[in-house]
Write a structure and sequence with these properties.
homodimer; alpha/beta; 9-stranded parallel sheet; 9 strands
Chain lengths: 283, 283
Amino acid sequence: MRSLKGRLDLCAVNTATLGYQLPIEETVEAVARAGFGAIAPWRRELDAHSAASVGRQIRDAGLKVSGFCRSTYIPAASRAQFLENIEDNRRALEQAAELNAACFVMVAGGLPEGSRDLPAARAQLQEGIDTLLGHARKVNVPLALEPLHPMYCADRSCLSTLEQALDLCQALDPERAGMLGVAVDVYHVWWDPKLEPQIARAGHERRALAFHVCDWLVPTRDLLLDRGMMGDGVIELQRIRRCMEHSGYTGAVEVEIFSRDNWWKRAVSETLTTCAERLQSVC
Amino acid sequence: MRSLKGRLDLCAVNTATLGYQLPIEETVEAVARAGFGAIAPWRRELDAHSAASVGRQIRDAGLKVSGFCRSTYIPAASRAQFLENIEDNRRALEQAAELNAACFVMVAGGLPEGSRDLPAARAQLQEGIDTLLGHARKVNVPLALEPLHPMYCADRSCLSTLEQALDLCQALDPERAGMLGVAVDVYHVWWDPKLEPQIARAGHERRALAFHVCDWLVPTRDLLLDRGMMGDGVIELQRIRRCMEHSGYTGAVEVEIFSRDNWWKRAVSETLTTCAERLQSVC
């Protein structure tokens, strides 16, 4: 396993961690100044800018783009809405290309409004990814399917386990052409009894495109916005990173923390300093 | 699949659903009066009574005991505490026998205080179940391992999926002697992409000992105490019950709802009436 001591160049900051307190240009400067090697911006931050200009600014600051967040949910209550969702993701993929992102992070989406049909949502997801994969190849940005914690199955992601994500990759890209893989976020997968063999499989099948860290707090007070800083919770972070890297992962270690009542209330500089310290000590 | 219309005798009420508003003797009467065929009491309700006398009262009311809730968590920070947990579960098993319970519901427990070692917690669980299985055979009460939703992995259950539970059963009881199986609660497993094949497996391996229903609300406002009444959420209840019964399950359909801010505030009679109605219409 790589040592992260003095190697913040191997580490990335997902801008969600900073609670979107600053405009993207200031966030880029702050992340670069703190010594990180990469950044993962969100689409909403680009609204007022062209992706090309933000991409240029990020490169000028000496940063890479570890991932671009994130897809529009795919399953929809109507065919027209499904097609619109695909089209919106195509546009996002073009932005990802302009940013020179290492991957486009895909969050599946849950059950369409009014539906209880999980197999149907999953079938829509498969069709949607299949369509977008063609576009990903064209713009040369890999799709990173991110399985989300099962507690988000209803409203955010019908893709719930790493095994399910890898099965989907295998079904749509059996030749492993390099444009379809997974994002492994410890928050979503740490509980999985099959985590280690599935990470090994991701490596073997060359699917590991991103690795996200944060921590699981006890108690967790909110299903979405109460993630912990690395070291403040119960996830055995080093064991999981060791698995990732033994399986061949060489990409960034990206911090992604949604924390409405704690980290999002702190100054960006304090959060970045703490991330840097924890990455080097407990990850 | 069995029709539940006019067949409340096939249905059970887990007393947690009623928020422990009444002493157990009144709860038993209320459940019997509402027409249910079985009840699943909690250990805390027996504190002031002998299990034998409560068991007699339940039988006199014409009810069966679909399950006895629940085990003391097994993983512990010290060997002494681990052994104490096992001993406490032995005593509970004796109560389960006096109640003539169809099964003893086992909730595994999560990480011991101060630990991040999930594989070690799972090893303790396996050792604990192995020890208790001998006692279960002696008192003739099957152990029903209940995988809990992965969001409880840290503090309530390192047993997180049906597949993991069935693997554990297979490891400890390869001869399938009938004293080790699983409790399938829709709340905990509905999201699982492998749910249908694992339910089929549970049937094939003769492990299905209990089936619990409630619903997953969107949004879910509390990780523990915001379960929904059947029909108020997004779980496709009939699909899951069909799987269970196709796989050979013939036991009770038991309602178990933890709902601090809604059902626990209502009158017991109203909750029972609604359970009865929903069991016959949406389950």
